[in-house]
């Protein structure tokens, strides 16, 4: 009877914990990343034009990028706008998240929806409305107008991330501090802010990346004296296929990838 028992030997797929859904997700993930890998490879090409596969290895396009004064000027403007928009959105978004999460405000739901509206309204519609508003105010085409526009679209990200961090903070800690004689400002400064510092840092990274990569609003609001880096890249692609853009795109991809990893680590550390 024992001889008739067939012993089951798991195949290699079972030993590797085969999961068709995970395999399909991995294939789609690689398919989406393939263009980025091609751009990265082309950025190290020794050819004078885009040729794949590249005939040799060279850093020539990185060298020409760092010697181009117009591109570096546009990069400086984008960094200036991104830093300013990040600081303003962190201040406004954090105060709004704290107020809406810790206090009962009349019309609080309406205020929250209004601050999250940039998520819902298409950016092309926002760009048209802001263009008209800034034209009436006489600030159209200035760096200040781009900073304001980028702050508007960064606030929702800050509001959501910081609000999530505040929800994770037990109210009992704040109540205990106030019971021991700490004022509201002291409690916020010594208890609440340190506990949500990782959420604020993560929101700042997300806001900076959003502002630095944003193109639509900047394209509507910029002027020849205030062109951001994405606009310069778009104009370079419109006129001709510039191999320097492969080096620029590689730097963008690397910076964004590093920012996303840091964002995830900060979210997990809260």
Give the termini separation: 61 Å
Cα-based radius of gyration, to the nearest Å: 25 Å
Q: Please report which band the strand proportion falls in: under 5%, 5-15%, 15-25%, 25-35%, 35-45% or over 45%.
A: under 5%
Strand-pairing-aware structural class = mainly alpha
Quote the CATH topology of the largest domain. Answer: MetI-like fold
CATH class of the largest domain: Mainly Alpha
CATH superfamily label of the largest domain: MetI-like
Identify the CATH architecture of the largest domain: Orthogonal Bundle
Helical run tally: 14
Give, in order, the helices and strands.
HHHHHHHHHHHHHH
Shape: globular
Count the domains. Answer: 2
Biggest sheet overview: none
Roughly what percent helix? over 70%
Low-confidence spans? none
What is the overall pLDDT average? Answer: 77
Note the quaternary state here.
single chain
- Total count of strands: 0
Describe this structure in words.
This protein has two domains: 10-60, no CATH class; 62-269, MetI-like (MetI-like fold), CATH 1.10.3720.10. The protein is built from 14 helices and no strands. The protein has helices spanning 12-15, 20-42, 60-65, 69-102, 108-115, 117-120, 123-137, 143-167, 171-179, 184-195, 197-213, 216-221, 229-239, 244-269. Helix 2 crosses helix 14 (244-269) and helix 11 packs antiparallel against helix 14 (244-269).
């Amino acid at each position: 009877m024992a001889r008739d028992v067939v012993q089951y030997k798991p195949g290699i797929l079972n030993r590797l914990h085969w999961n068709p859904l995970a395999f399909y997700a991995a294939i789609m993930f690689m398919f989406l990343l393939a263009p980025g890998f091609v751009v990265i490879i082309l950025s190290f090409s020794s050819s004078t034009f885009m040729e794949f596969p590249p005939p040799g290895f060279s850093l020539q396009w990185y060298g020409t990028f760092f010697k181009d004064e117009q591109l570096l000027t546009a990069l400086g403007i984008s960094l200036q706008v991104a830093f300013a928009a990040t600081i303003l959105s962190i201040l406004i978004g954090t105060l709004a998240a704290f107020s809406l999460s810790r206090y009962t405000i009349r019309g609080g739901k309406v205020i929250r929806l209004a601050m999250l509206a940039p998520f819902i309204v298409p950016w092309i519609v926002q760009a048209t409305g802001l263009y008209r508003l800034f034209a009436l105010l006489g600030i159209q085409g200035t760096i200040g107008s781009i900073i304001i526009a980028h702050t508007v679209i960064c606030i929702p990200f800050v509001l959501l991330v910081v609000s999530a961090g505040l929800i994770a903070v037990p109210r009992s800690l704040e109540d205990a501090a106030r019971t021991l004689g700490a004022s509201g400002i002291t409690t916020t400064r010594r208890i609440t802010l340190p506990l949500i510092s990782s959420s604020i840092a993560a929101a700042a990274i997300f806001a900076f990346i959003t502002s630095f990569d944003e193109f639509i609003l900047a394209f509507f609001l910029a002027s020849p004296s205030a062109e951001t880096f994405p606009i310069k890249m778009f104009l370079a692609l419109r006129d001709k296929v510039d191999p320097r853009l492969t080096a620029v795109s590689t730097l963008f991809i690397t910076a964004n990838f590093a920012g996303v990893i840091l964002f995830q680590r900060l979210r997990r550390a809260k």
